[in-house]
Predict the 3D structure of the following.
Amino acid sequence: MSTATSVDRNPATQARVIGALAGRALRVQFRRAQFLLPSFILPLVLLAVIASGTSSARSLPGFPSTGAYVGFVVGGTLMQGALLAGITAGIALAVDIEGGFFDRLLSAPIQRVSIVLGRVAAAGALGVVQATVFLTVAFIFGARYEGGVPGIAFAILLTALTAGGMAGLAASIALRTGSLSLLQNLFPIVFVLLFTAPAFFPRDLIDGTMQTIAEYNPLTYIVEAIRAALHDDAALGDPLHGLLAALGLLAGATALAVWAMRARLRNT
Amino acid sequence: MQAADNAVLVEDLVRTYPGGLRAVDGVNLKVETGEIYGFLGPNGAGKSTTVRILTTLLRPTSGRAVVAGFDVVTQAAQVRRTIGVALQEAALDPLMTGRELLRLQGALHGLRRSQARERGEELLRRVELVDAADRRLGTYSGGMRRRLDLAMALVHRPRVLFLDEPTTGLDPASRAALWREVRLLNDDGTTVFLTTQYLEEAEQLADRVGIIDRGQIVAEGTPDELKARVGEPSLHVELIDPARNADAIAAMSAHGHCSERREGGLVVRTPEGARAIAPVIRTLDEAGIEVDAIEVEEPTLDDVFLAVTGHTAAEAEAQAEAAPAP
């Protein structure tokens, strides 16, 4: 007698499936140096380099007061971590596709969208861990968060949403192409996205064209909202705009990934 | 026979890949509930493509396939709930442990956490992997990975189990252990659809065998029926003095068709099989010809292929490799 239940439309079961897939994705993330290094080490290295090498930027006219310079740039570090968490989620999915584990998931009686949602959820959870680590490290090196616990919690939330959104984008590329090498070559895009947003410098101090580009980059609103929340300073950004941008990125990217999954299944 | 009476029913199944390769070209087959069906063929014959269609991983270009009473296209979710799948080249995450993978598989099949844990432990005991359960799969041998793969396919107690070349690359002991497990599963009532390149494996396990070549079923029947189509088993005879081969052929012709082998020695095709050994030795002895060695040779996949297709399995593989990749 089969012990399988009617899993396809049962939301509680689907939530359990997504949780199990996300749990597996997180476990693998922490066991594979190839994923751990970019998710944690790289952002911390860049934080150290920028915080120590460009701290004189604080003395520029118009630079906002956020206490220690590291307290200003840590918002950019959260974004960098979130973007890299998303990319590694796409890489992990491509590894599953190339290695055949994806087929094992497809042969299970689950809604196949769960495979995408599990990846997105895992990236979001990783974003929470990353943000907690980065904020703690920055605190140790002098950053102070006037926004208190609510500000920190909001910053962590935005990081998690952004990581989930980026995971959706990367997953859609993995599902469309199935190419591990293509995903691995997307790392530079993280830096393009970061440096076309005011990740490490205030928007007012960015030159004309870049400022225009920054206005169209959703990360701009997210990183500014993180700073505003951490330092409890509305002049640094609009938390609502940041939340909407992060939610929009998450919803749009997840929809793209679901679409890519359906297209992949249609074409098999 | 109605679809529901069969564990697997396939009608005029075709799968064409982009580029025009017809990997499956009009396959028809039936597997009865409780049967072990051996699907035999060389690499590139269409075995794995057929299994991927039956397990809902691939859509057919045309035709119909029904598994456990459910259509693989229109009722794919029901099919997936009913079947267990252990695919060729067991796709297991090397960074996870055996225990973790079994629990994940349980969750994917709708088991609650406690159910998945209990079932996982039960299966670890069954495939004798309890001691290795907390080791990452990267440290498992090929046989251990296949056993775990089998355990994962059984998590939800499937009615139909698909095993795609489960013993390819395994050592004889691991192969025998897996065969034993497949027989036990079948004794419990599980229908098994087994693809293999090994005639011996099909003979050991299968109630019936289908042979596929270039996407088409070219022969079907019990192993004995198929062997009968191939012809008799043969005796391989080595003489102490190969110069007397011609004399030996003349002497042994009464026992069956006798000829010289390219690799050396003589071959006698005889319906008597092993029972012909004593009479053949007596005949040669009476003719004053000394025998160095004599043994029964069972038909190989090549013999079957040669008999039913006119070419060997190796030739079919070579042609499949030369064809455009799917």
In short: Chain B touches chain A at residues 55-59, 77, 80-83, 85, 87, 89, 91-93, 95-96, 100, 103-105, 107-113, 115, 119, 136, 152, 156-159 (CB under 8 Å). The longest strand of chain B covers residues 6-16.
